[in-house]
Amino acid sequence: MIGRSESTDEHGTPGHEGSGGDLATAVLEARGLGKRYGRRWALRECTLDIPAGHVVGLVGPNGAGKTTLLKLAGGHLEPTAGGITVLGGRPGSTPAQLARVGFVAQDTPVYAGLTVADHLRLGARLNPRWDAALAGERIARLGLDPAHRAGRLSGGQRAQLALTLGLAKRPELLILDEPVASLDPLARREFMQGLMEAVAEHEFSVVLSSHLVSDLERVCDYLIVLVDSRVRLAGETDRLLATHHRLTGPRRDPDRLPADQHVVSARHTDRQSTYVVRTDAPIHDPAWTVSRLDLEDLVLAYMDRRPAESRRATLEVQR
């Protein structure tokens, strides 16, 4: 894969996951990025590199700053602090820059009073790279009646119309902010299938935020976990899953673990400890039962807001 990825540990210390490469190929770079509304920071001190050529899953709890980050990347907001570049330029700075980025916002907004055909005509007028053949073929394949008003479409159909508008723009980067959160499982699957077919055919980058990790697991090959505006983890999903393990065994203080086993999360009972650790080295300790994580396990471990010091203090109290 292209580019460098960066992960951060619980103290915000940069680490590295992925294969390395030239940062010039980054689809998005943020340095100390922040956005404030009055006295409240919606995003603060966010530093991130996203390499090109990936379908990126962006996850995190409510209030982590995901939507704000994506709106800054789409050029819909101006930063209060720090800087951000997308495809090597300032988001929304020129019509040419805007044409390179597609954006599908939460709840897949379309104009209820306009017909499907109206939406396609509007897309053609507003987007210099508009692919009318792609839009028309996709609408026909989906079985959408061009004469139907968007307000009469089902939630899944509106989502597919919004995705069609984003794809026909022929972007180099497509940003999707919780596009399937309100859809039923079948509509979500059809939306994701359509997205992956388009990525395979047209080879563009995607950044997709979602609370539905099961959907991300099917489509994303790169993961970012954002908590309190800080990137807790970033990297290629296969690599991340290969270097994280669940250890279960007799109760043990985290300070007794090998130095190359970075503790991500810890749970303890009177007699048993369960750790999620990150390590590149094999784990040979026979006292541990070692198991693999799925993507949801990995995300939840990094979304644990308690710092390592709190975990150790809890362990001392329990002892």
Automatic annotation (TrEMBL):
The keyword Nucleus does not apply. Coiled coil: none annotated. PROSITE patterns: ABC_TRANSPORTER_2 (PS50893). InterPro entries: AAA+_ATPase (IPR003593), ABC_transporter-like_ATP-bd (IPR003439), ABC_Transporter_VariousFunc (IPR051782), P-loop_NTPase (IPR027417). Keywords: ATP-binding, Nucleotide-binding, Transport. SUPFAM superfamilies: P-loop containing nucleoside triphosphate hydrolases. One of its GO terms (molecular function) is ATP binding. The keyword Transport applies. Residues 1-14 have a biased composition (Basic and acidic residues). Residues 1-23 are annotated as: Disordered. CDD domains: ABC_DR_subfamily_A. It comes from the Bacteria. Residues 28-253 form the ABC transporter domain. This is ABC transporter ATP-binding protein.
